[in-house]
Design a protein that fits this description.
Layout: H1 2-14, H2 30-36, E1 39-51, E2 57-69, E3 75-80, E4 96-101, E5 108-109, E6 117-118, H3 126-131
Parallel strand pairs: 3-5
Antiparallel strand pairs: 1-2, 1-4, 2-3, 4-6
Length: about 130
C-alpha cells in the first residue's frame, strides 16, 4: 500500500501544472497611453460588483470628475479581472483613480498593464494629463 501511494505521488509530480500569470508590455508615457485608450478619466469608485459567471471579473462603477479622453459623462462602469493572473486591477471603493480604459462605453475594461492607478501616484500621469488637455 505504501508503494502504491508513493507511486501515485511521484506520478502526480510529473503532471504539468497549469500556471496563470499576467504578462504586460511596459506602458508608454501618459500621453502615449491616452492615445492608445478609448477613455481616460479621473474618477472615484462608487461600487464594485463581482461577476463570477463565465470569465470572472469585477464591474467597477465610477463617479467621473475629469475627462481627458472621450465624451464627458458623470458616471462610467469599467470591467477588470479579479486578479490571480488575469491582469485585473484591485480597485477600492471610495478611492480616486486615473483610469485608462479601452472598449466601447457599454463595455469598457482596464487592468494593471495600463497606467491606471491612484490619482495621487505620479505613475498615473494626472499632472501630465491635466497639462495636455
Amino acid at each position: 500500500m505504501k508503494h502504491l501511494i508513493l507511486c501515485l505521488l511521484l506520478a502526480a509530480a510529473w503532471l504539468p501544472l497549469r500556471a496563470e500569470a499576467c504578462s504586460c508590455a511596459r506602458p508608454g508615457t501618459p500621453v502615449e497611453e491616452k492615445d492608445q485608450h478609448t477613455r481616460v478619466f479621473l474618477g472615484r469608485v462608487q461600487a464594485i460588483e463581482e461577476d463570477l459567471r463565465g470569465e470572472p471579473r469585477r464591474r467597477v462603477r465610477f463617479i467621473v470628475s475629469e475627462t481627458f479622453k472621450g465624451t464627458p459623462v458623470r458616471r462610467l462602469t469599467v470591467d477588470t479581472g479579479i486578479g490571480g493572473g488575469d491582469c485585473g486591477y484591485a480597485f477600492r471603493t471610495g478611492q480616486e483613480y486615473v483610469v485608462y480604459a479601452w472598449g466601447k462605453d457599454d463595455a469598457l475594461a482596464t487592468g494593471i498593464c495600463s497606467l491606471t492607478g491612484p490619482a495621487t501616484h505620479p505613475r498615473s500621469g494626472l499632472d501630465v494629463l491635466r497639462g495636455d488637455k
